[in-house]
């Protein structure tokens, strides 16, 4: 399933993020804020286990997250969403997937992979601001499945319908939470209207 977060704050912040005049400092701040707003909704389905707690006045039953939470930013641009995720779950572990799209074929090329080990019942959040063709996300889910991990949710800031379709076709059990489903991809497989190259805008490389 896919979910587009329909919230006035998301719409407002996305509009500033898209603006070509928004520079990398504000772009980074907005990326973090949008990540928190989208992820808050995506984390609704996390399970909890009962956990007793003593307040200064009484004992009561509380709850704690059941799973080991693992955040997987797709390099580079996924790093711009990492702080937002860690603000919500500070003790999450972080694994990295290094993937870039080949300039000519637009297909994903994996150049780095580092996942945490000794995970107990892990739940993965893959984060990448742009879900364009879907190739990078599908490659990341494939890599997790190869290791036997199945509890996975994708969080993106902007998605193309083509990318959502591709992820759903390859991995129908993986949910996608996104701030916006845009119109389409252009001939270079960039999202229209999108926001341009997320990595370059985050890190000021162009
Ligand atoms: C961008 C983006 C995604 C990918 C999305 O990365 O951050 O990872 O493209 O495209 P897809 O859905 O068609 O796979 P890019 O290849 O520009 O690498 P970078 O983050 O290192 O700049
Ligand atoms: N990667 C980006 O950074 N932007 C797009 O629109 C598509 C892929």
Overview of the structural elements:
- This protein is α/β, with parallel strands linked by helices and 206 residues long.
- It has a single domain, classed as Rossmann fold, CATH 3.40.50.2020.
- It has six helices and 13 strands.
- Strands 1, 4, 5, 6, 7, 8, 9, 10 and 11 form a nine-stranded mixed sheet that branches. It has a two-stranded antiparallel sheet with strand order 2-3.
- A hairpin with a 5-residue loop joins strand 12 and strand 13.
- The radius of gyration is 17 Å and the shape is globular.
- The N and C termini lie far apart (35 Å).
- The mean pLDDT is 97.
- The structure holds 1-O-pyrophosphono-5-O-phosphono-alpha-D-ribofuranose (PRP) and uracil.
- Uracil (URA) binds next to helix 6.
Give the total of domains: 1
Strand content: 25-35%
Specify the number of helices: 6
CATH architecture: 3-Layer(aba) Sandwich
Uncertain spans, ≥5 residues at pLDDT below 50? none
Number of strands: 13
Quaternary structure type: single chain
Q: Given the C-alpha coordinates, what overall shape results? A: globular
Helical percent range? 25-40%
| Gyration radius, in Å | 17 Å
CATH topology: Rossmann fold
Q: Briefly, what CATH class?
A: Alpha Beta
Taking the sheet with the most strands, its summary is:
9 strands, mixed
Order of helices and strands: EHHEEEHEEEEEHEHEEEH
- Cofactors and ligands present? 1-O-pyrophosphono-5-O-phosphono-alpha-D-ribofuranose, uracil
Distance between the termini: 35 Å
Average of the residue pLDDT scores: 97
């Amino acid at each position: 399933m896919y979910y587009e977060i329909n919230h006035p704050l998301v719409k407002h912040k996305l509009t500033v993020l898209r603006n070509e005049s928004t520079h990398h400092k504000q772009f980074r701040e907005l990326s973090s804020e949008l990540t928190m707003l989208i992820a808050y909704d995506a984390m609704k389905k996390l399970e909890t286990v009962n956990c007793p707690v003593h307040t200064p006045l009484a004992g009561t039953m509380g709850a704690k997250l059941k799973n080991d939470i693992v955040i997987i930013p797709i390099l580079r641009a996924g790093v711009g969403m990492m702080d937002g995720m860690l603000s919500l779950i500070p003790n999450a572990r972080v694994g990295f997937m290094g993937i870039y799209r080949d300039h000519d074929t637009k297909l994903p090329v994996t150049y780095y992979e580092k996942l945490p080990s000794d995970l107990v019942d892990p739940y993965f959040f893959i984060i990448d601001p742009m879900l364009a063709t879907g190739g990078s996300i599908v490659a990341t889910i494939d890599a997790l499945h190869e290791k036997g991990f199945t509890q996975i949710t994708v969080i993106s800031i902007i998605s193309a319908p083509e990318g959502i379709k591709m992820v759903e076709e390859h991995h129908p059990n993986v949910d996608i939470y996104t701030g916006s489903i845009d119109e389409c991809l252009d001939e270079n497989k960039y999202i229209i209207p999108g926001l341009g190259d997320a990595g370059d805008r985050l890190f000021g490389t162009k």
